[in-house]
Amino acid sequence: MSEYETPTPSPEITSEDRLWAMLSYLLTPLIPIIILLMEDKKNRPFLKAHYFQALVLGIVLLVFGTILAFIPVVSCIFPFVWLAIVIIYAVKANKGEYITIPVITNFVKNQGWA
């Protein structure tokens, strides 16, 4: 497959799974917490790979955003960086791709969450 071809999602990944995974990134950390409470969703393999990562990513971004809010120039730029990051991951999740987020993916896997 060339780098310009869109990967075909695995058949066990439903469009609903892709939608929930996308929303997990866009509305993090709220949607990942909601998925955690939904018995029928939380054990789906594709969702499990995404919603824990999105939850940890959301918490990390909130912590960094709070700390960086005290630096004037950075506090103006950080929301745009945050938005770009979550949109990129949301689009990839909606395509049915498994995402590797530096440090966060390894942390989630080492904890046994995904």
Description:
With 114 residues, this protein is mainly alpha-helical. The chain has one domain. The protein contains 6 helices and no strands. The model has no long low-confidence stretch (mean pLDDT 89).
Give the helix/strand layout:
Layout: H1 15-26, H2 30-37, H3 39-42, H4 45-68, H5 72-94, H6 104-111
Arithmetic mean pLDDT: 89
Distance between the termini: 27 Å
Number of strands: 0
SSE class: mainly alpha
Q: Kindly give the count of domains.
A: 1
User: What are the secondary-structure elements, in order, as H or E?
Assistant: HHHHHH
Describe the main β-sheet briefly.
none
Strand proportion, as a percent range, falls in under 5%
Cα-based radius of gyration, to the nearest Å: 15 Å
Number of helices: 6
